[in-house]
Design goal:
This protein has 185 residues and is of the alpha+beta class. 43% of the residues lie in helices and 22% in strands. The longest helix has 24 residues. The two termini are 26 Å apart.
Length: 185
């Protein structure tokens, strides 16, 4: 989904507004800086390390970093904000966690976009094929017709709160209520 909706091949030029800087592309609008990794998700730490080196002043100013990733633990069409876990299972998040240090002075939130349910009892190779595989028609419709709007709601609220989310479980519950009201209204 993320590749389908938000990404572009690293060999192609970035969409308007994003400037390609090697392993990442960047754009700034008002007080928000958008950074897109041009690496494979499993190598996201490389993009963050380069961005951090190129933008020391910004990183040292204590920004809120919101990482958008594919969450195979959540069903298609769902979303949640979390923080890094001690034993992260997502290889891209492991890579990123490995280079985000306490000295970075950043608040990191993980915004997981559901791509599940994941297959049960499969080997690593099958799981990798599933994660990288194409979505079916039904999943594409859900992603395009629902998930994009939900993502916008989450991002708008994170910006509105200036990144001060408090308890992420309460924040997620609030977002779920807001989304349901929007769908009903």
């Amino acid at each position: 989904m993320l590749k389908h909706i938000l990404s572009f091949p690293s060999s192609s030029p970035p969409p308007p507004g994003l400037t390609k800087r090697g392993p990442y592309s960047v754009s700034t609008s008002r007080n928000v800086t958008y950074v897109k990794s041009n690496t494979y998700m499993n190598e996201s730490g490389t993009a963050w390390a380069k961005f951090k080196a190129d933008h020391r002043r910004l990183v040292s100013s204590g920004p809120v970093v919101c990482v958008l990733y594919d969450d195979f633990e959540k069903d298609v069409g769902s979303m949640r904000v979390s923080r890094f876990r001690k034993n992260e299972s997502h290889n891209g998040l492991k890579s990123l966690k490995g280079v985000v240090s306490r000295e970075d002075n950043v608040e990191v939130y993980l915004l997981g976009v559901g791509i599940g349910p994941k297959p049960v009892g499969v080997d690593r190779e099958t799981m990798a094929g599933w994660v990288l595989g194409a979505f079916g028609r039904k999943e594409k419709m859900t992603l395009e017709n629902e998930t994009v709007g939900l993502l916008e709601l989450y991002v708008d609220e994170i910006i509105e709160r200036d990144g001060d989310l408090g308890d992420v479980n309460k924040f997620n519950a609030r977002m779920t209520r807001m989304w349901k009201r929007r769908l009903e209204g």
